[in-house]
Description:
Blueprint (H helix, E strand, L loop, with lengths): L1 H19 L10 H10 L5 H22 L12 H10 L5 H11 L10 H19 L4 H14 L4 H9 L2 H12 L1 H9 L19 H8 L8 H25 L4 H31 L6 E7 H4 L9 E8 L14 H17 L10 E2 L12 E3 H10 L3 H7 L3 E4 L2 H15 L5 H18 L15 H15 L7 H10 L6 H19 L8 H10 L5 H22 L13
Parallel strand pairs: 2-3, 2-4
Antiparallel strand pairs: 1-2, 1-5
Amino acid sequence: MLSESYELYRVIEHRLQMVNDxxxxxxxxxxxxxxxxxxxxxxQSGQQLLDLLAPHVEAVGTIYDDLIEPEDDRRLPLDEEKxxxxxxxxxxxxxxxxxxxxxxxxxxxxxxxxSSAAQESFEAILPDLVDAIATAPNSTKALAxxxxxxxxxxxxxxxxxxxxxxxxxxxxxxxxxxHAPVLADALAQRAELFDGLIDAxxxxxxxxVEDLVEQxxxxxxxxxxxxxxxxxxARVGDKRFxxxxxxxxxxHDALAISAGYARVAEAxxxxxxxxxxxxxxxxxxxxxGGTLLILALGRLxxxxxxxxxxxxxxxxxxxxxxxxxxxxRSLGATQYYNRLAxxxxxxxxxxxxAGPLYEVDTRLRPSGTQGPLAVTLESFYKYQRENAWxxxxxxxxxxxxxxxxxxARAELQKEICDILCEERExxxxxxxxxxxxxxxxxxxPPKGPLDxxxxxxxxxxxxxxxxxxxxxxxxxxxxxxxxAVRALVDAGHLDKEMITAHELMTRLLVALRLMSxxxxxxxxxxxxxxxxxxGQESWDALLDGYDRAxxxxxxEWNRHLRPDPDEILGDII
Length: 573
Protein backbone atom coordinates (compact mmCIF):
# COMPACT_ATOMS: atom_id res chain seq x y z
CA MET A 1 0.00 0.00 0.00
CA LEU A 2 2.82 2.42 0.84
CA SER A 3 4.61 1.97 -2.53
CA GLU A 4 1.30 2.21 -4.44
CA SER A 5 0.45 5.44 -2.66
CA TYR A 6 3.90 6.86 -3.38
CA GLU A 7 3.54 6.18 -7.15
CA LEU A 8 0.08 7.79 -7.20
CA TYR A 9 1.34 10.85 -5.33
CA ARG A 10 4.24 11.29 -7.79
CA VAL A 11 1.89 11.13 -10.78
CA ILE A 12 -0.47 13.72 -9.29
CA GLU A 13 2.55 15.88 -8.46
CA HIS A 14 3.53 15.88 -12.13
CA ARG A 15 -0.01 16.79 -13.16
CA LEU A 16 0.06 19.76 -10.76
CA GLN A 17 3.34 20.99 -12.23
CA MET A 18 1.92 20.74 -15.73
CA VAL A 19 -1.14 22.83 -14.78
CA ASN A 20 0.71 25.54 -12.79
CA ASP A 21 4.03 25.35 -14.65
CA UNK A 22 5.95 25.51 -11.37
CA UNK A 23 7.45 23.28 -8.70
CA UNK A 24 4.56 22.57 -6.32
CA UNK A 25 3.39 19.76 -4.08
CA UNK A 26 0.02 21.18 -3.01
CA UNK A 27 -3.39 20.69 -4.56
CA UNK A 28 -4.82 23.94 -6.01
CA UNK A 29 -7.35 25.92 -4.05
CA UNK A 30 -9.54 26.85 -7.05
CA UNK A 31 -12.14 24.27 -8.10
CA UNK A 32 -11.46 24.86 -11.80
CA UNK A 33 -7.74 24.17 -11.39
CA UNK A 34 -8.53 21.02 -9.41
CA UNK A 35 -10.86 19.87 -12.24
CA UNK A 36 -8.08 20.43 -14.77
CA UNK A 37 -5.70 18.23 -12.78
CA UNK A 38 -8.41 15.57 -12.53
CA UNK A 39 -9.02 15.59 -16.31
CA UNK A 40 -5.26 15.18 -16.93
CA UNK A 41 -5.55 12.04 -14.80
CA UNK A 42 -8.56 10.79 -16.82
CA UNK A 43 -11.19 11.73 -14.23
CA GLN A 44 -14.34 13.85 -14.72
CA SER A 45 -14.01 16.20 -11.72
CA GLY A 46 -11.82 17.37 -8.89
CA GLN A 47 -14.10 15.56 -6.43
CA GLN A 48 -13.34 12.24 -8.11
CA LEU A 49 -9.62 13.01 -7.69
CA LEU A 50 -10.13 13.71 -3.99
CA ASP A 51 -12.08 10.49 -3.62
CA LEU A 52 -9.23 8.61 -5.31
CA LEU A 53 -6.62 10.10 -2.98
CA ALA A 54 -8.63 9.78 0.27
CA PRO A 55 -7.94 6.09 1.11
CA HIS A 56 -4.25 6.49 0.34
CA VAL A 57 -3.95 9.56 2.56
CA GLU A 58 -5.74 7.74 5.39
CA ALA A 59 -3.53 4.62 5.09
CA VAL A 60 -0.27 6.57 4.96
CA GLY A 61 -1.38 8.72 7.91
CA THR A 62 -2.13 5.64 10.00
CA ILE A 63 1.29 4.14 9.27
CA TYR A 64 2.97 7.43 10.17
CA ASP A 65 1.03 7.73 13.41
CA ASP A 66 2.04 4.21 14.40
CA LEU A 67 5.68 5.01 13.75
CA ILE A 68 5.80 8.44 15.36
CA GLU A 69 3.21 8.78 18.11
CA PRO A 70 2.90 12.30 19.51
CA GLU A 71 4.06 12.34 23.13
CA ASP A 72 0.91 13.99 24.40
CA ASP A 73 -1.33 11.27 22.89
CA ARG A 74 -0.29 8.91 25.68
CA ARG A 75 -1.40 11.30 28.36
CA LEU A 76 -4.71 10.80 30.06
CA PRO A 77 -7.39 13.21 28.83
CA LEU A 78 -8.19 16.27 30.88
CA ASP A 79 -11.82 16.12 29.81
CA GLU A 80 -13.84 14.27 32.47
CA GLU A 81 -15.94 12.23 30.02
CA LYS A 82 -12.95 11.20 27.93
CA UNK A 83 -10.97 10.31 31.06
CA UNK A 84 -13.84 8.13 32.31
CA UNK A 85 -13.96 6.41 28.92
CA UNK A 86 -10.22 5.69 28.96
CA UNK A 87 -10.37 4.29 32.51
CA UNK A 88 -13.42 2.20 31.55
CA UNK A 89 -11.52 0.70 28.58
CA UNK A 90 -8.84 -0.54 30.97
CA UNK A 91 -11.45 -2.66 32.86
CA UNK A 92 -9.92 -1.73 36.20
CA UNK A 93 -11.42 -3.23 39.34
CA UNK A 94 -10.98 0.13 41.08
CA UNK A 95 -12.04 2.23 38.07
CA UNK A 96 -14.17 4.63 40.09
CA UNK A 97 -11.47 4.95 42.74
CA UNK A 98 -8.90 5.78 40.07
CA UNK A 99 -11.19 8.46 38.64
CA UNK A 100 -11.71 10.04 42.04
CA UNK A 101 -7.98 9.94 42.83
CA UNK A 102 -7.01 11.50 39.47
CA UNK A 103 -9.58 14.28 39.92
CA UNK A 104 -8.12 15.00 43.37
CA UNK A 105 -4.54 14.98 42.09
CA UNK A 106 -5.51 17.44 39.36
CA UNK A 107 -7.57 19.67 41.64
CA UNK A 108 -4.69 21.95 42.60
CA UNK A 109 -5.27 21.18 46.28
CA UNK A 110 -2.42 18.65 46.60
CA UNK A 111 0.69 20.45 47.83
CA UNK A 112 3.15 18.39 45.82
CA UNK A 113 1.29 19.00 42.53
CA UNK A 114 0.62 22.72 42.65
CA SER A 115 3.52 23.95 40.52
CA SER A 116 3.38 23.73 36.75
CA ALA A 117 6.65 21.77 36.67
CA ALA A 118 5.24 19.21 39.12
CA GLN A 119 2.03 18.91 37.11
CA GLU A 120 4.01 18.42 33.90
CA SER A 121 6.19 15.63 35.34
CA PHE A 122 3.15 14.04 36.97
CA GLU A 123 1.02 14.02 33.80
CA ALA A 124 3.91 12.52 31.82
CA ILE A 125 4.10 9.49 34.11
CA LEU A 126 0.41 9.21 35.09
CA PRO A 127 -0.64 6.68 32.38
CA ASP A 128 2.19 4.30 33.30
CA LEU A 129 1.54 4.93 37.00
CA VAL A 130 -2.11 3.95 36.60
CA ASP A 131 -1.13 0.79 34.71
CA ALA A 132 1.52 -0.15 37.28
CA ILE A 133 -0.84 0.27 40.23
CA ALA A 134 -3.71 -1.44 38.41
CA THR A 135 -1.56 -4.53 37.81
CA ALA A 136 0.04 -4.51 41.26
CA PRO A 137 -0.46 -7.63 43.43
CA ASN A 138 -2.88 -5.73 45.67
CA SER A 139 -4.15 -2.87 43.54
CA THR A 140 -6.74 -1.67 46.07
CA LYS A 141 -4.19 -1.13 48.82
CA ALA A 142 -1.59 0.08 46.31
CA LEU A 143 -3.89 2.84 45.07
CA ALA A 144 -4.78 3.92 48.60
CA UNK A 145 -1.12 4.06 49.60
CA UNK A 146 -0.16 5.89 46.41
CA UNK A 147 -2.85 8.47 47.14
CA UNK A 148 -1.52 8.85 50.69
CA UNK A 149 2.07 9.08 49.42
CA UNK A 150 1.21 11.86 46.93
CA UNK A 151 -0.72 13.73 49.62
CA UNK A 152 2.29 13.67 51.95
CA UNK A 153 5.03 14.46 49.43
CA UNK A 154 6.50 17.93 49.95
CA UNK A 155 7.37 18.00 46.23
CA UNK A 156 6.80 15.48 43.47
CA UNK A 157 8.95 16.70 40.58
CA UNK A 158 12.06 14.56 41.08
CA UNK A 159 10.07 11.54 42.23
CA UNK A 160 8.00 11.35 39.04
CA UNK A 161 10.91 12.23 36.77
CA UNK A 162 12.85 9.28 38.19
CA UNK A 163 9.90 6.99 37.50
CA UNK A 164 9.65 8.36 33.96
CA UNK A 165 13.36 7.80 33.33
CA UNK A 166 13.43 4.30 34.88
CA UNK A 167 10.23 2.38 34.00
CA UNK A 168 11.44 -0.71 35.89
CA UNK A 169 11.07 1.26 39.12
CA UNK A 170 7.32 1.52 38.47
CA UNK A 171 6.93 -2.22 39.02
CA UNK A 172 8.96 -1.94 42.20
CA UNK A 173 6.80 0.94 43.38
CA UNK A 174 3.74 -1.23 42.81
CA UNK A 175 5.23 -3.96 45.00
CA UNK A 176 6.11 -1.52 47.77
CA UNK A 177 2.65 0.01 47.77
CA UNK A 178 1.01 -3.43 47.64
CA HIS A 179 3.05 -5.27 50.24
CA ALA A 180 5.05 -2.92 52.47
CA PRO A 181 3.12 -0.17 54.25
CA VAL A 182 6.21 0.64 56.33
CA LEU A 183 8.27 1.40 53.21
CA ALA A 184 5.36 3.28 51.63
CA ASP A 185 5.19 5.53 54.69
CA ALA A 186 8.94 6.10 54.52
CA LEU A 187 8.62 7.11 50.86
CA ALA A 188 5.90 9.58 51.73
CA GLN A 189 8.28 11.26 54.16
CA ARG A 190 11.37 11.09 51.94
CA ALA A 191 10.62 10.57 48.26
CA GLU A 192 14.36 10.82 47.55
CA LEU A 193 14.72 7.32 49.01
CA PHE A 194 13.80 6.14 45.54
CA ASP A 195 16.87 7.92 44.11
CA GLY A 196 19.18 5.43 45.77
CA LEU A 197 17.55 2.50 43.95
CA ILE A 198 18.82 3.78 40.59
CA ASP A 199 22.28 2.46 41.52
CA ALA A 200 22.41 -1.30 41.00
CA UNK A 201 24.48 -1.70 44.19
CA UNK A 202 21.43 -0.61 46.21
CA UNK A 203 20.30 -4.24 46.13
CA UNK A 204 23.58 -5.49 47.60
CA UNK A 205 23.82 -6.30 51.30
CA UNK A 206 25.55 -3.61 53.38
CA UNK A 207 29.34 -3.97 53.67
CA UNK A 208 31.24 -4.37 56.93
CA VAL A 209 30.70 -2.04 59.87
CA GLU A 210 34.10 -0.46 59.18
CA ASP A 211 33.17 0.33 55.56
CA LEU A 212 29.79 1.68 56.61
CA VAL A 213 31.44 3.93 59.19
CA GLU A 214 33.61 5.39 56.43
CA GLN A 215 30.55 5.99 54.22
CA UNK A 216 28.42 7.53 56.95
CA UNK A 217 31.18 9.81 58.25
CA UNK A 218 31.86 11.56 54.94
CA UNK A 219 31.34 15.29 55.20
CA UNK A 220 31.17 18.11 52.70
CA UNK A 221 33.20 21.33 53.06
CA UNK A 222 31.47 23.61 55.52
CA UNK A 223 29.49 20.85 57.25
CA UNK A 224 28.95 21.26 60.98
CA UNK A 225 27.68 18.85 63.63
CA UNK A 226 24.02 19.34 62.74
CA UNK A 227 24.75 18.81 59.05
CA UNK A 228 26.53 15.57 59.90
CA UNK A 229 23.51 14.41 61.91
CA UNK A 230 21.31 15.03 58.90
CA UNK A 231 23.71 13.29 56.54
CA UNK A 232 23.99 10.22 58.77
CA UNK A 233 20.21 10.03 59.14
CA ALA A 234 19.76 10.27 55.38
CA ARG A 235 22.43 7.65 54.64
CA VAL A 236 21.12 5.26 57.27
CA GLY A 237 17.58 5.78 55.96
CA ASP A 238 18.76 4.93 52.45
CA LYS A 239 20.39 1.71 53.66
CA ARG A 240 17.39 0.62 55.71
CA PHE A 241 14.98 1.37 52.86
CA UNK A 242 17.16 -0.59 50.43
CA UNK A 243 17.24 -3.55 52.84
CA UNK A 244 13.45 -3.54 52.94
CA UNK A 245 13.32 -3.50 49.15
CA UNK A 246 15.79 -6.39 49.02
CA UNK A 247 13.45 -8.42 51.20
CA UNK A 248 10.41 -7.67 49.03
CA UNK A 249 12.35 -8.42 45.85
CA UNK A 250 13.68 -11.67 47.35
CA UNK A 251 17.30 -10.73 46.63
CA HIS A 252 18.69 -12.06 49.92
CA ASP A 253 17.85 -14.35 52.84
CA ALA A 254 15.87 -12.58 55.54
CA LEU A 255 18.52 -13.64 58.09
CA ALA A 256 21.21 -11.89 56.03
CA ILE A 257 19.02 -8.80 55.77
CA SER A 258 18.51 -8.87 59.54
CA ALA A 259 22.28 -8.92 60.05
CA GLY A 260 22.55 -6.06 57.54
CA TYR A 261 20.17 -3.94 59.60
CA ALA A 262 22.40 -4.54 62.64
CA ARG A 263 25.60 -3.51 60.83
CA VAL A 264 23.94 -0.28 59.67
CA ALA A 265 22.83 0.53 63.23
CA GLU A 266 26.24 -0.25 64.73
CA ALA A 267 27.98 1.97 62.16
CA UNK A 268 25.52 4.79 62.86
CA UNK A 269 26.24 4.52 66.59
CA UNK A 270 29.99 4.74 66.02
CA UNK A 271 29.83 7.73 63.66
CA UNK A 272 27.35 9.71 65.74
CA UNK A 273 29.20 8.93 68.98
CA UNK A 274 32.52 10.12 67.52
CA UNK A 275 30.91 13.34 66.26
CA UNK A 276 29.02 13.98 69.49
CA UNK A 277 32.13 13.46 71.61
CA UNK A 278 34.09 15.91 69.44
CA UNK A 279 31.32 18.49 69.79
CA UNK A 280 31.03 17.87 73.54
CA UNK A 281 34.79 18.07 74.15
CA UNK A 282 34.96 21.46 72.43
CA UNK A 283 32.98 22.88 75.37
CA UNK A 284 33.70 20.58 78.31
CA UNK A 285 37.09 19.12 77.44
CA UNK A 286 38.12 15.57 78.37
CA UNK A 287 38.09 13.62 81.61
CA UNK A 288 41.71 12.52 82.24
CA GLY A 289 41.96 8.74 82.12
CA GLY A 290 38.29 8.33 81.25
CA THR A 291 36.69 6.69 78.22
CA LEU A 292 33.13 5.95 77.09
CA LEU A 293 31.85 2.48 76.21
CA ILE A 294 28.47 1.54 74.74
CA LEU A 295 27.03 -1.90 75.39
CA ALA A 296 24.34 -3.20 73.03
CA LEU A 297 21.79 -5.77 74.19
CA GLY A 298 18.71 -7.37 72.69
CA ARG A 299 18.55 -7.79 68.93
CA LEU A 300 21.36 -5.30 68.29
CA UNK A 301 23.63 -7.17 70.71
CA UNK A 302 22.72 -10.35 68.85
CA UNK A 303 23.39 -8.72 65.46
CA UNK A 304 19.89 -9.47 64.16
CA UNK A 305 17.63 -6.41 63.84
CA UNK A 306 14.34 -6.00 62.03
CA UNK A 307 13.21 -2.84 60.26
CA UNK A 308 11.23 -1.86 63.38
CA UNK A 309 13.78 -2.77 66.06
CA UNK A 310 14.78 -0.23 68.68
CA UNK A 311 18.29 -0.10 70.11
CA UNK A 312 18.85 -1.46 73.62
CA UNK A 313 21.90 0.38 74.95
CA UNK A 314 23.83 0.76 78.20
CA UNK A 315 26.35 3.62 78.58
CA UNK A 316 29.45 2.93 80.68
CA UNK A 317 32.63 4.85 81.43
CA UNK A 318 36.02 4.04 82.85
CA UNK A 319 38.36 6.08 85.01
CA UNK A 320 38.01 7.94 88.29
CA UNK A 321 34.39 8.98 88.85
CA UNK A 322 35.57 11.86 91.05
CA UNK A 323 37.78 13.37 88.33
CA UNK A 324 36.83 16.54 86.45
CA UNK A 325 37.04 17.43 82.77
CA UNK A 326 39.62 19.96 81.57
CA UNK A 327 37.45 22.14 79.32
CA UNK A 328 36.17 25.72 79.58
CA ARG A 329 33.03 24.45 81.28
CA SER A 330 34.45 21.75 83.50
CA LEU A 331 32.22 18.89 84.71
CA GLY A 332 32.68 16.07 87.19
CA ALA A 333 33.15 12.69 85.52
CA THR A 334 29.71 11.32 86.44
CA GLN A 335 27.91 14.44 85.28
CA TYR A 336 30.15 14.62 82.20
CA TYR A 337 29.35 11.12 80.96
CA ASN A 338 25.66 11.32 81.83
CA ARG A 339 25.27 14.54 79.83
CA LEU A 340 27.28 13.02 77.00
CA ALA A 341 25.09 9.89 77.03
CA UNK A 342 21.94 12.04 76.91
CA UNK A 343 23.37 13.89 73.90
CA UNK A 344 24.01 10.56 72.20
CA UNK A 345 20.46 9.34 72.80
CA UNK A 346 19.23 12.59 71.26
CA UNK A 347 21.56 12.23 68.25
CA UNK A 348 20.26 8.70 67.64
CA UNK A 349 16.56 9.31 68.19
CA UNK A 350 15.43 12.92 67.70
CA UNK A 351 14.03 13.59 64.20
CA UNK A 352 15.68 16.22 62.00
CA UNK A 353 15.01 17.38 58.43
CA ALA A 354 16.09 13.93 57.27
CA GLY A 355 13.61 12.19 59.57
CA PRO A 356 14.04 10.01 62.68
CA LEU A 357 16.73 7.40 63.04
CA TYR A 358 16.11 4.88 65.84
CA GLU A 359 14.17 4.49 69.05
CA VAL A 360 16.67 4.04 71.89
CA ASP A 361 15.80 1.96 74.96
CA THR A 362 18.04 2.47 78.01
CA ARG A 363 15.84 0.70 80.55
CA LEU A 364 18.24 -2.27 80.84
CA ARG A 365 20.86 -0.14 82.57
CA PRO A 366 21.62 -0.85 86.26
CA SER A 367 18.68 0.17 88.47
CA GLY A 368 16.56 0.80 85.36
CA THR A 369 14.94 4.18 84.81
CA GLN A 370 15.63 5.07 88.45
CA GLY A 371 19.39 4.87 87.95
CA PRO A 372 21.81 7.21 86.15
CA LEU A 373 22.03 6.98 82.37
CA ALA A 374 25.79 6.29 82.44
CA VAL A 375 27.64 4.40 85.20
CA THR A 376 31.24 3.42 85.85
CA LEU A 377 32.47 0.01 84.80
CA GLU A 378 33.14 -0.83 88.45
CA SER A 379 29.61 -0.02 89.58
CA PHE A 380 28.21 -1.96 86.60
CA TYR A 381 30.22 -5.05 87.52
CA LYS A 382 29.29 -4.71 91.21
CA TYR A 383 25.58 -4.36 90.38
CA GLN A 384 25.60 -7.35 88.04
CA ARG A 385 27.34 -9.54 90.61
CA GLU A 386 25.44 -8.49 93.71
CA ASN A 387 22.08 -6.95 92.85
CA ALA A 388 20.98 -7.94 89.35
CA TRP A 389 17.82 -10.00 88.87
CA UNK A 390 17.80 -13.20 86.88
CA UNK A 391 16.06 -11.50 83.97
CA UNK A 392 18.89 -8.92 83.85
CA UNK A 393 21.43 -11.70 83.48
CA UNK A 394 19.26 -13.26 80.79
CA UNK A 395 19.41 -9.96 78.95
CA UNK A 396 23.16 -9.84 79.53
CA UNK A 397 23.63 -13.04 77.53
CA UNK A 398 23.12 -10.91 74.40
CA UNK A 399 25.35 -8.04 75.52
CA UNK A 400 28.02 -6.91 73.05
CA UNK A 401 30.19 -3.77 73.21
CA UNK A 402 29.64 -1.63 70.08
CA UNK A 403 31.68 1.44 70.95
CA UNK A 404 34.89 2.15 72.83
CA UNK A 405 38.58 1.45 72.85
CA UNK A 406 39.18 -2.09 71.48
CA UNK A 407 41.10 -3.21 74.58
CA ALA A 408 38.41 -1.81 76.91
CA ARG A 409 35.69 -3.51 74.84
CA ALA A 410 37.49 -6.86 75.04
CA GLU A 411 37.89 -6.50 78.82
CA LEU A 412 34.19 -5.61 79.18
CA GLN A 413 33.14 -8.69 77.18
CA LYS A 414 35.38 -10.91 79.33
CA GLU A 415 33.93 -9.52 82.57
CA ILE A 416 30.38 -10.13 81.29
CA CYS A 417 31.29 -13.72 80.43
CA ASP A 418 32.71 -14.24 83.92
CA ILE A 419 29.52 -12.87 85.50
CA LEU A 420 27.35 -15.16 83.38
CA CYS A 421 29.49 -18.19 84.22
CA GLU A 422 28.94 -17.84 87.96
CA GLU A 423 27.38 -20.97 89.49
CA ARG A 424 23.60 -20.91 89.98
CA GLU A 425 21.19 -23.19 91.75
CA UNK A 426 19.26 -24.85 88.85
CA UNK A 427 15.88 -25.07 90.57
CA UNK A 428 15.94 -21.45 91.73
CA UNK A 429 16.94 -20.43 88.23
CA UNK A 430 14.09 -22.44 86.70
CA UNK A 431 11.53 -20.85 88.99
CA UNK A 432 12.85 -17.34 88.32
CA UNK A 433 12.70 -17.83 84.55
CA UNK A 434 9.15 -19.18 84.72
CA UNK A 435 8.09 -16.28 86.96
CA UNK A 436 9.40 -13.76 84.48
CA UNK A 437 7.56 -15.46 81.61
CA UNK A 438 4.32 -15.46 83.62
CA UNK A 439 4.68 -11.71 84.16
CA UNK A 440 5.10 -11.14 80.42
CA UNK A 441 2.03 -13.25 79.63
CA UNK A 442 0.01 -11.12 82.04
CA UNK A 443 1.22 -7.72 80.87
CA UNK A 444 2.06 -8.23 77.19
CA PRO A 445 -0.26 -10.66 75.41
CA PRO A 446 0.14 -11.43 71.68
CA LYS A 447 -1.03 -8.71 69.28
CA GLY A 448 -2.41 -11.17 66.79
CA PRO A 449 -2.19 -14.73 65.46
CA LEU A 450 1.15 -14.02 63.77
CA ASP A 451 2.82 -12.34 66.73
CA UNK A 452 5.88 -14.49 66.22
CA UNK A 453 7.48 -13.19 69.39
CA UNK A 454 4.71 -13.38 71.97
CA UNK A 455 2.61 -16.35 70.83
CA UNK A 456 2.85 -19.54 72.86
CA UNK A 457 5.91 -21.35 71.61
CA UNK A 458 7.13 -18.19 69.85
CA UNK A 459 10.49 -16.47 69.85
CA UNK A 460 10.25 -15.17 73.43
CA UNK A 461 9.73 -18.70 74.74
CA UNK A 462 12.53 -19.92 72.45
CA UNK A 463 14.88 -17.22 73.78
CA UNK A 464 13.98 -17.98 77.40
CA UNK A 465 14.93 -21.64 76.91
CA UNK A 466 18.27 -20.70 75.36
CA UNK A 467 19.06 -18.12 78.04
CA UNK A 468 18.06 -20.52 80.82
CA UNK A 469 20.47 -23.15 79.48
CA UNK A 470 23.24 -20.58 78.99
CA UNK A 471 22.96 -19.48 82.63
CA UNK A 472 22.47 -23.02 83.93
CA UNK A 473 25.43 -24.54 82.10
CA UNK A 474 27.72 -21.53 81.56
CA UNK A 475 28.05 -22.73 77.97
CA UNK A 476 27.29 -21.25 74.53
CA UNK A 477 27.64 -17.68 75.81
CA UNK A 478 27.42 -16.06 72.39
CA UNK A 479 25.34 -12.88 71.90
CA UNK A 480 24.27 -14.19 68.49
CA UNK A 481 21.33 -16.51 69.10
CA UNK A 482 21.92 -18.62 66.00
CA UNK A 483 25.46 -19.37 67.15
CA ALA A 484 24.33 -20.01 70.72
CA VAL A 485 21.61 -22.51 69.80
CA ARG A 486 23.97 -24.50 67.58
CA ALA A 487 26.45 -24.77 70.45
CA LEU A 488 23.70 -25.95 72.81
CA VAL A 489 22.53 -28.52 70.26
CA ASP A 490 26.10 -29.75 69.74
CA ALA A 491 26.49 -30.07 73.52
CA GLY A 492 23.35 -32.24 73.67
CA HIS A 493 21.23 -29.75 75.62
CA LEU A 494 18.64 -29.06 72.90
CA ASP A 495 16.79 -30.82 70.11
CA LYS A 496 18.35 -29.91 66.75
CA GLU A 497 14.90 -28.85 65.50
CA MET A 498 15.30 -25.77 67.70
CA ILE A 499 17.72 -24.47 65.05
CA THR A 500 15.09 -24.82 62.33
CA ALA A 501 12.43 -23.29 64.58
CA HIS A 502 14.60 -20.24 65.29
CA GLU A 503 15.47 -19.63 61.65
CA LEU A 504 11.89 -19.94 60.41
CA MET A 505 10.38 -17.72 63.10
CA THR A 506 13.14 -15.12 62.79
CA ARG A 507 12.73 -14.91 59.02
CA LEU A 508 8.99 -14.59 59.52
CA LEU A 509 9.48 -11.83 62.10
CA VAL A 510 11.72 -9.83 59.75
CA ALA A 511 9.16 -10.14 56.94
CA LEU A 512 6.13 -9.30 59.07
CA ARG A 513 7.72 -6.17 60.51
CA LEU A 514 7.65 -4.79 56.97
CA MET A 515 4.58 -6.40 55.45
CA SER A 516 2.13 -7.02 58.29
CA UNK A 517 3.23 -4.99 61.32
CA UNK A 518 -0.11 -5.54 63.08
CA UNK A 519 0.74 -9.27 63.39
CA UNK A 520 -2.56 -10.23 61.76
CA UNK A 521 -2.94 -12.45 58.71
CA UNK A 522 -1.78 -10.41 55.70
CA UNK A 523 -3.85 -9.95 52.52
CA UNK A 524 -3.86 -13.06 50.34
CA UNK A 525 -1.88 -11.21 47.66
CA UNK A 526 1.05 -10.77 50.07
CA UNK A 527 1.07 -14.26 51.55
CA UNK A 528 3.24 -15.94 48.91
CA UNK A 529 5.82 -13.17 49.25
CA UNK A 530 5.94 -13.52 53.05
CA UNK A 531 6.21 -17.30 52.74
CA UNK A 532 9.14 -16.91 50.35
CA UNK A 533 10.86 -14.47 52.72
CA UNK A 534 10.44 -17.05 55.50
CA GLY A 535 12.08 -19.70 53.32
CA GLN A 536 8.88 -21.65 52.59
CA GLU A 537 7.39 -22.76 49.28
CA SER A 538 3.85 -21.54 49.98
CA TRP A 539 1.63 -19.91 52.56
CA ASP A 540 0.24 -23.28 53.64
CA ALA A 541 3.78 -24.64 53.98
CA LEU A 542 4.67 -21.59 56.10
CA LEU A 543 1.72 -22.12 58.44
CA ASP A 544 2.58 -25.81 58.79
CA GLY A 545 6.23 -24.98 59.47
CA TYR A 546 5.22 -22.28 61.94
CA ASP A 547 3.03 -24.73 63.85
CA ARG A 548 5.82 -27.32 63.94
CA ALA A 549 8.32 -24.72 65.13
CA UNK A 550 6.05 -23.59 67.97
CA UNK A 551 5.34 -27.18 68.99
CA UNK A 552 9.07 -27.88 69.09
CA UNK A 553 9.56 -24.89 71.40
CA UNK A 554 6.64 -25.99 73.61
CA UNK A 555 8.13 -29.49 73.90
CA GLU A 556 11.56 -28.13 74.83
CA TRP A 557 10.01 -25.71 77.30
CA ASN A 558 8.19 -28.50 79.06
CA ARG A 559 11.39 -30.56 79.13
CA HIS A 560 13.59 -27.85 80.65
CA LEU A 561 11.14 -25.48 82.35
CA ARG A 562 8.37 -27.80 83.53
CA PRO A 563 5.42 -26.12 85.28
CA ASP A 564 5.17 -26.09 89.05
CA PRO A 565 2.33 -28.13 90.57
CA ASP A 566 0.73 -25.05 92.11
CA GLU A 567 0.62 -23.03 88.88
CA ILE A 568 -2.79 -22.39 87.38
CA LEU A 569 -3.22 -24.51 84.26
CA GLY A 570 -3.09 -22.36 81.14
CA ASP A 571 -1.16 -19.49 82.72
CA ILE A 572 1.92 -20.48 80.77
CA ILE A 573 3.06 -23.20 78.45
